Amino acid sequence: MTDKSSDEQGLSGRARAADAAARAGAAVAAEAFRTDIAVEAKTNATDFVTEADRDAQAAVVTALRERGFEGPVVGEEEADEVVDAVPETGPAWVVDPIDGTNNFVRGVPVWTTSVAAVVDGAAVAGASAAPMLEDVFVADGTAAWLNDQPMAVSERTDPAEFAVAPTLWWGHDRRAEFAAACREIVERFDDLRRFGTVQYSLAAVAMGALEGAITNVRGAPWDTVAGAHLVERAGGTVTDIHGEPWRHDAQGLVASNGEAHDEVLAAARAIEAERPD
Description:
Elements: H1 11-32, E1 39-41, E2 48-50, H2 51-66, E3 73-75, E4 82-83, E5 91-99, H3 101-106, E6 112-119, E7 122-130, E8 135-139, E9 144-146, E10 149-150, E11 163-166, H4 175-188, E12 191-192, H5 198-206, E13 212-215, H6 221-233, E14 237-239, E15 253-256, H7 261-272
Parallel strand pairs: 3-4, 3-5, 11-12, 11-13
Antiparallel strand pairs: 1-2, 5-6, 6-7, 7-8, 8-9, 9-10, 13-15, 14-15
């Protein structure tokens, strides 16, 4: 069986597949959590990868194929069936086997396995499983759920009551931007939260635990697509740094509950002002 576009195997089918695949990958990763697992550094001393990342990604791919869904898999870890860019046409899957690997290797239980379905470059379904928190977030083309219950963004309207997360990561040569992100949040809003995982930060916006999550960084699709889709389907707003509708290759990601989005966007733009030319 291949991808279908009928009601039976369309968007709801992809949402069910994303849910099942995220759970499968999360279960594999959870078995290795807080064990003596080998850790490797990728691009820098704190950019980690473990065998759990690779095994969880393989479990996600297997779960998708077992449900009959074909199409490219866009993933963080190199593998035979995995590519590193979202195709502009046709169906594909975007996978982050462990978003928050730094948390994972430190024994911090806030990390997710995230899976998104895209068609012609746009998300149509997504799921993020946070197994150590016993939470699973899922969205199809119309709505979003947390643990099988309808999920919606916060209804707060006053920025003075907002909790906002700086998200993605500013490298050691861009710490002025990280500092600006923290400054803008604490000066404009009530509180700052940093979870160490983009996908969980976006899920937190989707479930109403945060009012915003911001960055001026261009993120990888596996870090962002599922979570951005959750926010939008839960009733929130996601734009790029310019205030345009967000897409997987956009510069910046500004997610909010849709209330006072301009103020959340202004905070993100102030970070951008610190970016080196």
